[in-house]
Specification:
Layout (H helix, E strand, L loop, with lengths): L5 H43 L16 E2 L2 E2 L22 E4 L2 E4 L3 E2 L8 E3 L13 H4 L16 E6 L5 E5 L6 E5 H20 L9 E2 L2 H6 L3 H7 L12 E4 L4 E3 L9 E2 L31 E3 L4 E4 L5 E2 L8 H8 L4 E10 L7 E8 L2 E9 L6 E5 L2 E5 L4 E4 L8 E3 L2
Parallel strand pairs: 6-23
Antiparallel strand pairs: 1-2, 3-4, 5-22, 6-7, 7-8, 8-21, 9-20, 10-21, 11-15, 12-14, 13-15, 16-19, 17-18, 18-19, 22-23
Length: 405
């Protein structure tokens, strides 16, 4: 073999030296890196073992230890779960049968005025009690008053958690009332027809007629001031007027707040009118009465509860409520009596009504014993208890909220 020259030997030596240096650098780098990793791991373990750790035992599977934390989480078998989306409150998340479930269970508190609710009354046959003996009217074309298929909307959301629904439209049938009998029985009859045809026993919901109190509940302060400031030449709303000539009155009126029959003095009748009687929307009788009218011996004092006002949406808390009440051209009865000092000769006794934007009343009997026959539509109202829940829908007319079983 040919010997290497001195120059060749030098080149080989330098190559071997370079390889040795490179190997030394690689080994040193690895040692430093490993030392840093060990230091970092020791720092991590020390940190997680103390209060600053983000590891929670209940989030780590039972039997597994991480960073000094031993897990306690046990796998839960949800295959026997019986809850579904409609059983869980709206927007709440639950897990059942291995699935993530978002609740669709709605409460009444989530409703707003005007929302449609799929309320269905119990099936009922015709109401046949609207006879002349009960209404005072000889016009009895609607004495067989039938249940109609009505839609229902939210009228009022009450402080106690209950919600009042109102039929989206009035009935297409009229109820006739006339004279002292119509005044005495009017509130009872309107409520009885509504209860007989539009209640739902399983929901504990008893229907009734729309009242002036329902409407006032939707008014703002300026609206209440507006209707209660109405007046005529004899009396303003809430004021009294005394008649010594025409002194006839429906028998029920003697039991009402604000009435005064043969007061000891007429100089200051406000100090003596009845204050412990019934209100204008209360039904004094438990069944239709056959009572008609009486005549005061000396004087008849009335407190005016009548007004004639053209309403606008500005008098209500929201425009939807206004449209629910005033969005119809037909006359709608209010199961609320009203009394008016019509003029200096006689007083009028009647029931309230709504006609388009007009909020007023129609008298059926006068203190001169004249009678008047009138007919308006029925507007049923029903209250749902705070325990009622909703299962689906969005409150629109095409997708009303469904009442949960």
């Amino acid at each position: 073999m040919k010997k290497l020259s001195k120059k060749q030997k030098l080149i080989v030596f330098i190559a071997i030296l370079l390889v040795a240096v490179i190997l030394a650098i690689v080994i040193t780098t690895n040692i430093i890196s490993n030392n840093n990793q060990i230091a970092n791991q020791e720092e991590y373990l020390a940190t997680t073992a103390n209060a600053g750790s983000s590891l929670v035992a209940s989030y780590i599977k039972k039997g597994i230890t991480i960073g000094g934390i031993t897990g306690t989480l046990e796998t839960l078998d949800t295959s026997d779960a019986t809850a579904y989306a409609e059983d869980i409150a709206w927007g709440k998340v639950a897990y059942a049968r291995g699935e993530r479930i978002v609740g669709t269970y709605l409460t009444l508190g989530m409703l707003k005025v005007g929302d449609y609710v799929a309320y269905t009354p119990d099936s009922a046959g015709p109401y046949t009690g609207l006879t002349q003996a009960n209404t005072g009217s000889s016009t009895t074309t609607d004495d067989s008053f039938t249940q109609e298929s009505l839609s229902w909307r939210v009228l009022n959301i009450n402080d106690d958690g209950t919600v009042d629904l109102i039929s989206a439209t009035p009935t297409s049938q009229n109820i006739y009332l006339s004279g002292a009998t119509g005044y005495n029985n009017g509130v009872y009859m309107l409520n009885d027809v509504a209860a007989s045809l539009y209640s739902n026993k399983s929901l504990g919901a008893t229907a009734r007629s729309l009242t002036i109190e329902d409407i006032e509940a939707g008014m703002n302060e300026s609206g209440l001031d507006y209707i209660h400031s109405d007046s005529n030449s004899q009396a303003a709303w809430g004021e009294t007027y005394t008649y010594t000539g025409s002194r006839y009155y429906p028998n029920l009126y003697a039991h009402e707040n604000g009435s005064g029959i043969d007061l000891a003095t007429t100089a200051d009748p406000n100090s003596a009118v009845k204050e412990d009687g019934i209100n204008q929307s209360d039904s004094y009788y438990d069944s239709p009465t056959t009572e008609t009218y009486s005549r005061a011996n000396k004087a008849l004092t009335i407190t005016q509860t009548y007004y004639y006002r053209s309403m606008s949406s500005s008098y209500y808390k929201n425009s939807t409520f206004y449209n629910l009440i005033h969005g119809f051209s037909g006359y709608q009865w209010l199961a609320s009596r009203c009394v008016v000092a019509s003029n200096s000769s006689y007083a009028g006794f009647g029931l309230g009504y709504v006609y388009s934007s007009i909020l007023s009343g129609s008298y059926l009997f006068t203190s001169s014993s004249n009678t008047r026959n009138d007919y308006d539509y029925l507007r049923p109202v029903v209250s749902l208890g705070s325990n009622i829940r909703l299962s689906s829908g969005d409150g629109s007319s095409s997708s009303p909220y469904q009442i949960a079983d």
